Amino acid sequence: MNHHNSSDNNEKNIELNNEGKLKTFFNKDIISKRMNNRILLDKVAKKLFFGSILFALIILVILFYRIGVLSIGWIDLQFLTSNLSIFPEKAGIYGVLIGSFLLMVVVIPVTLLLGISTAIYLEEYAKKGRFQSFVNINISNLAGVPSVIFGLLGLTVFGRLLNLGSSILAGGLTLSLLVLPIIVAAGQEAIRAVPGFLRDGAYAMGATKWTTVRTVVLPSALPGILTGSILAVSRAIGETAPLVVLGIPALILRVPNSLMSDFTALPIQIYYWTLDTVLTPEYANMAAATIVVLLVLLFLLNSVAIVIRNKYQRRY
Amino acid sequence: MLNEKNNNHHQNNIVYDVKKLNLWYGDVLALKDINLTIRENQVTAIIGPSGCGKSTFIKTLNRMVDNIPAVRTSGEVLYYGTNIFSDTLRVEELRTSVGMVFQKPNPFPKSIYENVVYGPKIHGISDKKILSEITETSLKSASLWEEVKDRLHANAYGLSGGQQQRLCIARSLAIQPQVLLMDEPTSALDPIATNKIEELINELKKYYTIVIVTHNMQQAARISDITSFFLSGEVIETDATQKIFTNPNDKKTEDYITGKFG
Q1: Taking 60 as the threshold, does the pLDDT of residue B6 lie above it?
Q2: Has residue B207 got a pLDDT over 60?
Q3: What's the CATH code of the domain at B188?
Q4: Residue A103's domain is classified under what CATH number?
Q5: Domain membership flag for residue B152
Q6: ipTM of the complex in this document
Q7: What is the mean pLDDT of residues A161-178?
Q8: B159 inside domain
Q9: Are B106 and A198 in contact (CB under 8 A)?
Q10: Are strands B43-47 and B71-79 parallel, antiparallel or unpaired?
């Protein structure tokens, strides 16, 4: 378009010096000298940042080395398929694995359903206003609440009030509460990342909000939601404190056979075996072997999350 | 229920009758006392400088402005005699009758086929045979069929920008609307793609009522029957396109179309 006004005072826009050349603001020599310093600083920064990574890596290597040495010779089929026993050489973690598995049977559907629904409500339905930001702040706060406090909540509500005791259901629901904020936050993030113009496309054809969410928003947000969910589930699998508070017995139990059974889970077994190392030194080896199993499980879950993310990631 | 046109092709049936429409974003009055009539099987172009409210206006016609927080309106927009703001009108139903094409092509990240059948599917058509018939008809109407008929199940994002926009037109046509709203449909496209869309609009106006917002005055002059000039949220002048571009009544219209501002 025509810029009518600017044509009259064109000469004032570019300031020139007395010789009719462009004014200079920079002394190139000084710039060059400072450049040396900046390049040096850049190299130092790179080394510092690499050092930070190294710190984490070294710790991880030490951890792997320690549990590797302790667990060698203890992880075998017998260890995975036998039940707990007072004789270390006969003991296995079959019942513990089943306990952890059944916990996930409770945690996964409960958290996915409640978490994703909450995220959908907050992002798509709730009016952007005080209520929404109040809930959002509280969800972030909940994510930071220590897990032992969730254990107390679980004990009060599920253990005592609903009389579920220290069953798998009580433990699973408690862990669900613990990881819900993670899934809600991940879900919100993923839903928010779905571009508005896709929703517009659906709305403009007479889609209702729920149809739009179901057919456009969720399919696009799914990779993000699933990644967040798997990370949350990994967290739940590895959590000890809430279960300790719930009063999971440190006894040798039968393999759990229903959601109402008493149970023990991988992290809690690690905890109890480590505690009892003073009595029976072999328990240290068994704890280490259980840690390996738990780490492998977590590694597998995280791999699934990464595969899903890479496979379904969409670009617009 | 909306009283859609009965099939007598009476040229001058009124589709939209906008009466004293005001629209606020919060406290900012974005549309001031708009009066405008839109008639069947005509292309009505809305022109005006950036920020004049033309985009807001076209989004009011299918109530897409509902999705913007803090929007308030007053006045009436009669669509075939029904006030679109009335409580008894279901906005989803309005939008099945009034399709919209956006500034930036926005196909879903699905296949070409899935994009076209999206509307029919969500409105309850599941018969595969009907759906593929709809696909062919809609893509043909959007002059895209020949280019994509061999790769209907390829991702829509593999298409060029112009093809994506025609796919979006096909997607809108798939639910057989009466009206097609186009919000600067060619502003993200190159001249060749733009030309194709303009030819398409010329074809479509025989069967649809088209309202198009455009930045490009030549485009308005080439494709529209009626042009309405918006400035600062007001309608300055609405008249036959021919008249607006050769002999406008208002000085402001003349200044705009001759490029004195904007």
Answers
A1: no
A2: yes
A3: 3.40.50.300
A4: 1.10.3720.10
A5: yes
A6: 0.91
A7: 90
A8: yes
A9: yes
A10: unpaired
Q: Is the pLDDT of residue A9 over 60?
A: no
- B102·A204 Cβ contact <8 A: yes
Rounded to a whole number, what is the distance in angstroms from the first to the last CA of chain A? 31
Q: What share of residues in chain A are helix, strand, coil (percent, to 5)? A: 70, 0, 25
CA B181, CA B60: separation in Å to the nearest integer? Answer: 10
CA-based nearest residue to B163, from B135, B192, B204: B192
In what helix (H) or strand (E) does residue B154 lie, and over which residues does it extend? none
Q: Please report whether residue A30 resides in a domain.
A: no
Selection from B121, B117, B150, B151 nearest residue B132 by Cα: B117
CB contact under 8 A, B64 and A128: no
Q: Average pLDDT, stretch B193-210?
A: 93
The answer to whether B53 and B30 are in contact (CB under 8 A) is yes
Closest-CA distance of chain A to residue B253, Å: 15
> Which letter, b or e, does each residue of B31-54 get, where b requires 16 or more Cβ atoms within 10 Å of its Cβ?
beebebbbbbbbbbbbbbeeebbb
Q: How many contacts, defined by CB atoms under 8 Å, are there between A and B?
A: 72
Looking at residue A265, its amino acid is A
Using a CB–CB cut-off of 8 Å, the residues of A that contact B are 1-2, 4, 127-128, 197-208, 211, 215-216, 219-220, 314-316
pLDDT digit string (tens) for A230-281? 889 988 988 888 888 887 776 666 778 878 888 888 898 898 888 888 888 8
Instruction: Give the angle A167-A248-A289 at the CA atoms, nearest 5°.
Output: 115
Q: Is residue A245 part of a domain?
A: yes
- Give per-residue burial for B57-79: e unless 16+ CB within 10 Å, then b: bbbbbbbbbeeeeebebebebbb
Minimum distance, in Å, between the CA of residue B12 and any CA atom of chain A: 26
Q: What is the DSSP letter of A16?
A: B
Q: How confident is the model over B234-249, as a mean pLDDT? A: 94
Q: Give the span between the Cα atoms of B105 and B95, in whole angstroms.
A: 18
A305 vs chain B: nearest CA distance in angstroms?
21
- Residue B119 and residue A205: Cβ atoms within 8 Å? yes
Indicate whether A58 belongs to any domain: no
Number of domains in chain B: 1
Q: Smallest CA–CA separation between B45 and chain A, in Å?
A: 19
CB-based contact A206 B118, cutoff 8 Å: no
Contacts of B172 in chain A (CB under 8 A): 204-205
Rounded Cα distance, A226 and A292, in Å:
25
CB contact under 8 A, A211 and B122: yes
* Helix ranges, B85-240 (H): 91-97, 112-122, 128-141, 145-148, 161-173, 191-204, 217-223
